[in-house]
Predict the 3D structure of the following.
Amino acid sequence: MGTTRRENTDWILKQLFKTTGLVTIALLGGIFFMLLYNSFAFFSNINPIDFFTGVQWNPENVNGKYSIFPLLISTGLVSLGSMLIAVPLGIFTAAFLSELAPPKLQAILKPAIEMLAAIPSVAIGFLGIVLVGPGIAKIFGIQNGLNALNGSILLSVMALPTIITISEDAINAVPKSYREASLALGANKWATLFKVVIPAATPGLIAAVMLGLGRALGETMTVLMATGNAAALPRGFLDSVRTITATIAIEMGEVPYQTTHYFALFAIAAILFLITLSINLLGEYFANGLRKFHA
Amino acid sequence: MIKRTIYFFNWVLLIGSTVIVCMILGVILFDIFSKGMPSLTWNFISKLPTNGMTKGGILPAIIGTTLLTFITTIFAVPFGVACAVYLNEYARPSMLTNIIRASIRNLAGIPSIIYGLFGLALFVQAFRLGTSSLSAGLTLGLLSLPYIITTTEEALKRLPNSMREATLALGVTQFETIKDVVLPTALPGILTGVILTLSRAAGETAPILFTGVAFYINGVTTSINQEFMALPYHLYMLSTQHQSIEEVRPLAYGTAVVLILLVFMLNIIAFYIRFKQRARD
Amino acid sequence: MKYLFLISLVGLFSCSSTDKTIKLKGSDTEVNLAVQLAESFHDINPTVFVSVSGGGSGLGIASLFNGTGDMANSSRSINDAEVMLFEKKGLTIDSFIFAQDAIAFVVAESLPIDSISTTDLTEILRGSQTNWSFLTKKKLPINIYGRQSNSGTHDFIKKKLGIDFSPHAKEMNGNAQILEAIKTDNSGIGYVGAGYVIHGGSKGIKVLTIYTEKNKQAVSPLDATMIAAGKYFFQRPLFQYYKTGSYQKNKPFLDFEKSVKGQKIIQSAGYYPVK
């Protein structure tokens, strides 16, 4: 009899554990549904064409100007800038770590990179205000350093650990035989690295860049603190910009629930969700490609 | 000659990048610690803010962040571990587990501000918990879930199958195997992942913006149905919202030091556990 | 392990006392004053907690409506759209004016200008004049430092001058950031509560006196007698709104604001107490 009771307990607990798995699906579904539901409420008030093609985000205006376009451009500009900085830095550092660094140096550098990853985003944003901002203002001779360039620099710092870690895995995953074959054919160390190892690791490197980009696109606090938050269309990296995440952070607290402005913030969040989701899926696709390639 | 130049150039490229990355970390830590350490006194971490937050300490923010992390733990750890146990111990690879794993991976990639919106819609509005540390803690819990599941599953995967088979052969049920053998053995690995995830959650600001963090509270409260102060938000507020930013800059640096020390401390504990376990293996 | 979690959960719930926190939200102009009031209030009334948050007047009023706040600090009177929202929900609200605020326009000390007309200000803020050469001998591009649209100050100036701000106006997170920017920008113009200038110091900046077409006498926002007479152009009462039903809950704090000690705090923070 004791056995049956124990078996029953076992069965019940198994179902309980299974439920938690189902809840994770429900969680993703719930987030998606919440964004979709509120976006529908928004698009029943506002024409989607105006939403994507207008040039002004100004919900306080009497007519309520809701256009995601300047926010998208801002988000894109800041993230693009961050990738221009972080991708070369990250990949070369990863190459150094896996190809050149002696084990002892690796034992120091790897925790250092994990430390960089652990620094809270709000602390990085704080440095954007007190350190990077004044620096930019001085170098470019402008009055105020809170702009897209500042945001790009900070976001590159936040994306670097992701890019380095995944790139290093990708480079390490290139089979030793590739290197040996290349060296045996008379190619030197550098030619082997740049002409054989890095090309072979490309899918993994793309995955690294995609995941780093996903992190940069979704980051809120650093851009909120360091980019100046002007909602006008930016003309360059020295203009202040306002990203999608910063707009949500600034305006969500002030809106009365269930109004057009409230729904509008969910609509731009839905767009952000779709963008980061596709970037992450793309990254995963390349990461999987890498796995199959070497399997 | 040209060859040697290229050689040198490549060498500089790789070393230079690494040096720049290290310098970034160095500059961040040096700036914050050199300017923040002078503010870090016993009074700073044990007193309430005074004079319109231009003097005094940050005790309510420290208590708030601790309380928040506690709520996150209570919610996310049992849940996350249970899900990992299901995926690794009970379920056979199937359509369902594939979907669950895909959901977890995608949940990990969702921007934290969207978790904030979800927490606002679900906990603050639908569950009527209001803006409170409970709402914010649960929101951070959701954010932490995918990481806890992934790291726990990795810890479980590292255990040899022979261990499970040996106990099962003794006629013990699967749950008993999990409870008495699998989880205790995997504990260090699970703990490492949990602590690292919590250190991340403790530093998050965006998810708590609309779910209950307050600018200032005139006392120390640990009620879970009340608003709270938190270290990361306190730093944000002191550096952008306060009336005399220059005057409170030392306080902002001090807060940054406390926040980073807290996060690093958790990280070091996690590394220590991982190190001990590797030494044992 | 599981029991430990359960016990701690129960422990958490039991130590959460009854609803003894007054949640005060809204205007950034008022938030620092509210913090100072709450601080002294705690000395007298240690059992009642007050949590204070900024974010803008709109945020405060929305928090009343959303049920996430007990009292809204607002540096503007409630607007028609908001009144409609409350009516729709069947809520009535009361207001209390606890101080007067004057908005100061500040420029760098080196800029050769001391007073400005409301007409010229309008031209600058809406972006139709973009160089100081139209007022002074210096040829410098005008940089506008303003607040985010959720700020009561932003709203107040917009309404008072009847303009939309230039889209190139920088939207700063708070009054303090504006002062800081003006200190380093010799061609900038910004607006902050006069309380900030008095309290935060006016090193490196200059407060402009304001005159209108009708009244040619330029008035400074730091002139207490003119403010008391209501003569400054950018002057406004500071409100606190609360739901009629929650008066009893907020009463201890409202009483404190009216007390001698409360009035003294308001005055020393650079606002003008209402008699």
